[in-house]
Write a structure and sequence with these properties.
homodimer, 232 residues, alpha/beta, Rossmann fold, DNA polymerase, domain 1, 2 domains, 6-stranded mixed sheet, elongated, binds magnesium ion, DNA-binding
Chain lengths: 232, 232
DNA sequence: TGAGAGAGGGTGTGA
DNA sequence: TCACACCCTCTCTCA
């Protein structure tokens, strides 16, 4: 919209002055959108148009962004293109893929899916495919997101060595955690088991009947415990 | 609880009749929220309040949900709790972790961060930490998201892409995770231990010398293992 | 035969 | 999820 003062943009991307020029390859199909202009309005950003085989924006092998307006998104859900694309994106090595969903239901009302369909698709993409999804309200915000994300990821790569903390967890806590990996066993039941049988070995040695004598452990949990320790 | 909503059936979660009862463990700190009631309003859903060591909603080996209202989220960004929590969530092995951000700026105006700060935090959480984030407009929608997500994940044999190490399935997987809670034991050594001793009980019964015969297990690891199972 | 050093691998941490 | 520092383990060498 207003590609002038860089300082006017309040995004962290420009707040923290970028150390060096960020080169962004933009798919030529994105040319008609307002995002490239918004990107170029930032200082230290150089964009080049290119034909990208995957994604719409690429920043030096750290970030690949697929941008979709709500309308695009709805369309790609309907024709099933979305999931194919998502699965190609997550397969990319060496770079973090990411989907930016641009727009609100207000300005994309015509193409909007029912909200539940939208959410359903988002769940599949995010949770099942594991593809990170960000939402943006406008092309300008999309540009800011891209830059901020690129900076974050880049910072990770160029980071001074850091101190490693070590955490000597107490033994009891350790044992408690071990038992908690058993389904239906949380901190409370884990502790009760330890109180009753003394150690994880004690728990492991108990019979299903023994186990059921513990307060809060029923047949189901007792069976599970025994099964995890001894197999079916 | 107030299971009066019958109109709550608008989600895909209930559109496709669930195959079996979904048991959801809810952290007791979520009791005051409206989400549990919204969950319970669904057919075939049984919720139990429990103390969860991590996350707010847990559907057995499938999904762990951390729910945050916008207000919570803003707070946790400010005090830095967010990233610590995210990194704990991302390391959960038993199930797929996920953050649901509930609310809009409209009804959480008071606590809202500047939009850029919100986006910045979301970028870090999603892109850098790789934690899936979903957004919800209301407690009811949160409930729908949880159920739909659980169904999706359960349905898909497709496990989300590889984590480091071996990826066994079923019971063996649980046994593997159990052993991984021991210091110095990761996926690789856990699997070797299981291959050698058959079950966690077998491992627990082994002497320190027995343990050291496993490839990759030395004196230090053997001692730790024995100690966790038997105490000092 | 035992000690010690060095390499490689695995784990755990931070982001 | 990814990258990598650290430390355990194993092997090889030399006494
Ligand atoms: Mg596109
Ligand atoms: Mg919470």
């Amino acid at each position: 919209m207003k590609p002038k003062q860089s300082n006017a943009m309040k995004t962290g991307a420009s707040d923290a002055p970028p150390q060096f020029v960020r080169r962004i390859a933009v798919d030529h199909r994105e040319r008609p959108s307002e995002v490239p202009a918004a990107l170029a309005a930032h200082p230290d950003v150089r964009i080049t148009f290119d034909q990208l085989s995957l994604g719409d924006y690429r920043i030096d092998n750290t970030l690949i962004v697929e941008r979709k307006t709500l309308t695009d998104f709805a369309q790609s859900v309907r024709d099933g293109r979305l999931f194919a694309q998502a699965s190609r994106l997550i397969r990319v090595k060496r770079a973090r893929p990411c989907l930016i969903l641009e727009g609100t239901r207000i300005n994309h009302w015509s193409a909007a899916l029912p909200r539940t369909a939208l959410q359903g698709a988002l769940i599949t993409v995010t949770l099942v495919f594991g593809l990170p999804v960000l939402r943006s309200a406008s092309p300008e915000e999309t540009a800011n997101l891209i830059l901020y994300a690129a900076d974050q990821l880049h910072r990770r790569a160029t980071r001074p060595p850091k101190r490693r903390g070590y955490h000597p967890k107490g033994l009891n806590r350790q044992q408690n955690f071990l038992l908690q990996t058993i389904p239906e066993i949380g901190p409370t039941r884990a502790q009760r088991l330890l109180n009753t049988f003394g150690t994880p070995f004690g728990v492991a040695s108990a019979t299903i009947d023994d186990l059921q004598m513990v307060d809060g452990i029923g047949k189901s949990a007792a069976t599970k415990i025994h099964q995890v320790f001894h197999g079916p």
